[in-house]
Amino acid sequence: MSLRIGTALREGARRTFTRDGLVLAVVFVVIGIVSTISFLTLLANGIDGLLELMRANQGTGDAEFALEQIRAVESVADALDPLTLPVSSAVAWLLVALTAVLAEAVNIVAVRAFFADSGRALSGSLVRRNLPLATLNGVVGGIIVNIVVAIGLLFLIVPGIFFAIAFLFLRQEIAIEDQNFVDALADSWQLTKGNRLELFALVLGVAILVAIVTRVPPLLFGTVSPTASILVSILVGGVTTVFGTAVITRAYAQLHADRAAVQNGETDTDEWAV
User: Measured between alpha carbons, how far is 251 from 272 in angstroms, rounded to an integer?
Assistant: First the structure.
């Protein structure tokens, strides 16, 4: 059976605004705030180091920095200051890594919640099953997929897109079938066969919609202040992250059911009916 794109989009949109979807959006917003502040702290620390170098080499020579250049960099540092933490770069890097791992864990939980029949699955024990191991496999598998896709995009765009679609369900296979990342890669490859053009159209449609939604509000609030623009971007990003995960997971649910039917019911999906 071919993928029903409209059904995946409708179900994904509906699940985004259920109780589970809104709770997950709030969690992603919190993670986004911590991650953004940590990254800006890294950037600010780097700028502080650059300012020290520029001030030590202030002058009019070819290898020296003019006062106007120093003041321009100082203005950037002043703009970042309200959004940074008083910590070292090492601590900021640690926070970035921790938020990335936490985001993967929440994504695993989101996949399980959106795969379930109910829109109120977060309170169930299934969404937390083997979460540390699933998160580890998600992180490692995600890194591998990103490297493969990047190599494909580097040489020719089409191979990169192909690999991105072929491994689209990596996280879903890890979350739902408790696969390790190697088996999840193989199963995602098999599950997407015959539906890769439809999945590409679905991903492209979601990407365009998310790009529009995430660009317009920050631009409008950017006229107020850069800080407001960043905060609005994070808020919108929390909702669009949930929407994207919900849509892809509902598409996966369709193909997962088809695979179970082909296997004559060997795959048990009843445990996910919450």
Answer: 16
What are 89-114's pLDDT values in tens digits? Answer: 999 999 999 999 999 999 999 999 99
Question: In sequence order, which ranges of the chain are alpha helices (DSSP H)?
Answer: 5-16, 19-56, 67-80, 89-115, 131-155, 157-166, 170-177, 181-192, 196-222, 226-262
* The pair of three-digit structure tokens given for residue 192, joined into one six-digit string: 């997407």
Split at pLDDT 50, 70, 90, the class of 42 is very high
Phi, psi (degrees; rounded to nearest 5) at 65: -110, 135
User: For residues 165 and 177, what is the distance between their CA atoms, to the nearest angstrom?
Assistant: 19
DSSP for 2-55, written as a single string = ---HHHHHHHHHHHHTSHHHHHHHHHHHHHHHHHHHHHHHHHHHHHHHHHHHHH
Q: 183 pLDDT exceeds 90?
A: yes
pTM flag (> 0.90):
no
Contact 259, 253 (CB under 8 A): no
